[in-house]
Amino acid sequence: MSRAGRSGAGEEPAFTAYVESLDHEGQGVAHVDGKVVFIDGALPGETVRYRVRRSKARFETADVVDVVHASPMRTTPRCIHFGSCGGCATQHLDTAAQVAVKQRVLEDSLWHIGQVRAEQILPPIHGPDWGYRYRARLSARWIDKKNSVLVGFHEKRSSFIADMHGCDVVPPRIGRLVDPLRELVGQLSLRERMPQVEVALGDALDALVFRVMDPPTPADEALFRAFGDRWGVSIWLQPKGPETVFRFYPAEGPPLDYSLPEFGLRLEFAPTEFTQVNPHINRALVARAMRLLDPQPGERVADWFCGLGNFSLPIARLGADVVGVEGSAALTRRALANAHLNGLEARVRFAEANLFEIDEAGLAAYGHFDKWLVDPPRDGALALCKALPDAGSDGSANGVVPRRIVYVSCNAATLARDASLLVHTKGYALRAAGVANMFPHTAHVESVALFERP
Question: What are the distances in angstroms from CA 71 to CA 46, 111, 241, 339?
Answer without folding.
Answer: 5, 26, 46, 49
